DNA sequence: GGTTAGGGTTCG
């Protein structure tokens, strides 16, 4: 029987099972009408959609392996050549009574990525959502709802974290949901009551006479802000998920309904200026500093830009115990709330970094009076996040573009500008002298409210900070300290900032791309058919009929007994790709060509040396045109410097070169980041050239300094040391600026 | 192949 099935991948997992090498379970949503002989006699359109809409498919062996690599949740899949068996899990998963086995010789399939299928406008695989008042027990369902109660994920006694929430919809039914996942990032990102949540493949279950929803195999979730006019942006950690116009309409309808029900009537959180003693409240704030008090208690020093009308307690800790900037001046202004976080919340608090924006739920404002303090003295407020999760007690970090942070940001800016007007200087609020900090801190202790300063000086100068206008007025050469934002930077494609620099002749050139290098290898192949023969080398050659050429390896006689990791290997008759493969197993590979049977290096436009993933280039102008015999005696360990020397090559260095347009209130300055770029990024240029991870790190830092699509107001301030100098060009003297002795902060290196 | 939790103030 020949049956084709066109299906939509709902979930899958890769498992090893008893003696089978691999088997693959896939739960899919059928939307193509299939042969009535195979399945139920019902018209699929009439059958209960939620009951038989999904079917298990099991893959075996290499098909399972290949399929798992190419498929994503939400993809459309065409299946053929399967066998149909009775599903042993029908009673438990309530899916189709049959399952499909992709095991025979005829089993084959085609995966169409979900991006393609959704762009084709197909709506046939649309999910079915059950209104909350129509849920029946023991089903796997998809639902939408508005959150009326939630707890941040907390650890269970089992293996998972648990999120507890209650949702409702236009039917007014209220349904509790329990979400289990050992990965915190998979839990729904709920920030406030009124958020809209979508749950896929959750199990209905009666508990204490009420309907509840529980995560089941292949579940997923997406959440949305519940505000009427905010953009419908899915919050999810999922790599692939389906979201279309129909979903958007559902979210908008729920928002509309929620607003009519006043589900979002109250402000999500209370500003510090409105907090009264003994209150339990939610707080939106920025973390300034934190300190570990003991194993069950952590201090968070936060602010929200408003001033509490009651005096706040100040918890002092040793400066070296404090992570983040000291808050002395804010403390004096009654702007910092000292929050003691207890027990189960310490785990989350530990992961927080100063500068992050936070939301704390069910924070307790505790009036505290020192023993013996007279009763006419106003009591001070301290804040406790008690242990436990009652009333949703907990904390989480929130993204910096959360709309509820607008007040905090505008207050912060207002406060900063007031200070500037009143004091004529920002020194008091914006700067704490280094001697007040203690010896432990290496970086500059500059203190700001918002945005956070993302870099620090290492120059040791005690220069006063200057405006950019002042810097431009001064006569070079000179050092300056400035505080500025990044208006723009070049090159925007960061791989282009990597250059090759010859320390001998100071030439700077671009790093060639693979296409160009491959051409240089091809040219060498065309010109050298005969293996070269050198008296100092042991040569072995492999003739490949398939490749129509010989690949030849040469190793210096002196090194032939050493292991391949320490040998210097000369390779002839290879392409760039082959060189890359071979250099993965050899530490030092030098591609060579033959010129009248004599060994010659390739054109120095290509790397002369491959060391695992690193490539090294020589300077065309400063290297010897040819070598007779490499100088190998006396070399203990071969590195790029020794190899270059032995071959008479002038090694070029990898350097980073960026041009920043810096801006402060007084003007803009273009400054290069070059000689101190490695220090700035905490990464060596050679490592950046060879490692995707390091390139990502640089990109992350740049994205934090100039977040894509951000306004100037949203960008962080950088404290920078600039050197001003002159260069002669075309008989004209030009003033240049370079960023020097400046490091970005460690917390920028990790992607937020 | 499917535990855990199943909202309802700590006690510092």
UniProtKB/TrEMBL annotation:
Annotated TM spans: 12-34
Gene Ontology process terms (BP): regulation of telomere maintenance via telomerase; telomere capping
CDD domains in UniProt: hPOT1_OB1_like (cd04497), hPOT1_OB2 (cd04498), Pot1C (cd20374)
GO cellular component, one term: nucleoplasm
Pfam family, one: POT1_C_insert
Gene3D superfamilies reported for this sequence: Nucleic acid-binding proteins
Gene transcribed to yield this protein: POT1
Similarity-based family: Belongs to the telombin family.
Protein name in the entry: Protection of telomeres protein 1
Domain Telomeric single stranded DNA binding POT1/Cdc13, residue spans: 129-259
């Amino acid at each position: 029987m020949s049956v084709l099935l066109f299906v939509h991948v709902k979930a899958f997992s890769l498992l090893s099972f008893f003696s089978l090498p691999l088997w693959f379970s896939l739960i899919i949503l059928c939307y193509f009408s299939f042969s009535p002989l195979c399945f139920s006699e019902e018209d699929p359109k009439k059958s209960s959609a939620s009951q038989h809409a999904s079917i298990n498919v099991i893959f075996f062996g290499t098909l399972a392996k290949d399929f798992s690599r190419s498929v994503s949740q939400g993809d459309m899949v065409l299946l053929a050549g399967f066998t149909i068996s009775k599903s042993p899990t029908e009673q438990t998963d309530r899916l189709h009574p049959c399952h499909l086995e992709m095991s025979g010789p005829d089993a084959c399939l085609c995966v169409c990525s979900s991006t393609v299928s959704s762009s084709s406008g197909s709506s046939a695989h649309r999910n079915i959502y059950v209104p909350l008042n129509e849920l029946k027990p023991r089903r796997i369902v998809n639902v939408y709802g508005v959150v009326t109660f939630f707890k941040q994920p907390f650890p269970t006694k089992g293996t998972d974290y648990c999120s507890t929430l209650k949702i409702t919809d236009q039917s007014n039914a209220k349904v509790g949901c329990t979400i289990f996942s050992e990965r915190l990032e998979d839990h729904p990102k709920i920030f406030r009551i009124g958020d809209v949540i979508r749950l896929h493949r959750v199990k209905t279950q009666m508990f204490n006479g009420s309907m509840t929803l529980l995560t089941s195999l292949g579940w997923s979730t997406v959440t949305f802000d519940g505000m009427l006019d905010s953009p419908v942006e899915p919050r999810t950690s999922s790599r692939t998920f389906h979201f279309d116009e129909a979903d958007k309409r559902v979210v908008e309808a729920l928002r509309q309904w929620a607003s009519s029900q006043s589900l979002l009537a109250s402000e999500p959180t209370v500003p510090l200026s409105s907090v009264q003693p003994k209150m339990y409240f939610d707080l939106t704030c920025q973390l300034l500093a934190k300190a570990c008090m003991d194993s069950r208690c952590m201090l968070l020093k936060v602010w929200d830009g408003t001033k509490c009308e009651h005096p706040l307690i100040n918890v002092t800790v040793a400066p070296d115990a404090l992570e983040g900037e000291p808050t002395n001046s804010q403390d004096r202004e009654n702007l910092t709330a000292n929050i003691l976080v207890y027990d189960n919340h310490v785990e989350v608090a530990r992961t927080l970094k100063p500068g992050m924006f936070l939301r704390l739920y069910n924070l307790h404002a505790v009036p505290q009076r020192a023993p013996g303090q007279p009763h006419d003295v106003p009591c001070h407020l301290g804040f406790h996040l008690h242990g436990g999760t009652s009333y949703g007690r907990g904390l989480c970090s929130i993204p910096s573009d959360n709309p509820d942070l607008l007040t905090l940001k505008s207050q912060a800016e207002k406060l900063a500008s007031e200070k500037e007007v009143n004091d004529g200087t920002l020194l008091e609020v914006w700067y704490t002298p280094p001697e007040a900090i203690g010896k432990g801190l290496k970086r500059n202790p500059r203190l700001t409210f918002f945005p956070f300063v993302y870099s620090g000086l290492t120059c040791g100068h005690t220069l006063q900070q200057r405006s950019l206008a002042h810097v431009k007025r001064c006569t070079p050469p000179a050092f300056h300290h400035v505080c500025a934002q990044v208006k723009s930077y070049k090159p925007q494609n960061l791989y282009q900032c990597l250059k090759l620099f010859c320390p001998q002749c100071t030439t700077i050139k671009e790093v060639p791309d693979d296409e160009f290098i491959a051409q240089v290898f091809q040219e060498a192949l065309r010109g050298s058919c005969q293996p070269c023969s050198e008296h100092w080398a042991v040569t072995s050659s492999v003739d490949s009929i398939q490749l129509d050429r010989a690949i030849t390896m040469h190793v210096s006689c002196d090194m032939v007994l050493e292991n391949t990791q320490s040998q210097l290997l000369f390779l002839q008759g290879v392409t760039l790709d082959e060189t890359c493969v071979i250099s993965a197993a050899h530490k030092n590979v030098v591609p060579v060509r033959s010129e009248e049977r004599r060994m010659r290096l390739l054109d120095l436009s290509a790397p002369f040396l491959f060391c695992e993933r690193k490539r090294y280039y020589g300077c065309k102008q400063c290297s010897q045109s040819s070598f007779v015999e490499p100088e190998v005696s006396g070399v203990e360990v071969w590195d790029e410097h020794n190899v270059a020397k032995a071959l008479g090559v002038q090694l070029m260095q990898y350097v980073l070169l960026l041009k920043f347009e810096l801006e402060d209130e007084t003007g803009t300055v273009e400054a290069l980041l070059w000689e101190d770029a490695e220090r700035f990024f905490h990464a060596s240029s050679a490592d950046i050239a060879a490692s995707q991870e390091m390139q990502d790190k640089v990109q992350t830092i740049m994205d934090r300094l100039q977040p894509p699509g951000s306004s100037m107001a949203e960008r962080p301030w950088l404290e920078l040391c600039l050197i001003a100098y002159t260069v002669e060009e075309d008989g004209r003297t030009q003033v240049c600026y370079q960023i020097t002795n400046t490091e970005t902060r460690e917390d920028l290196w990790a992607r937020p």
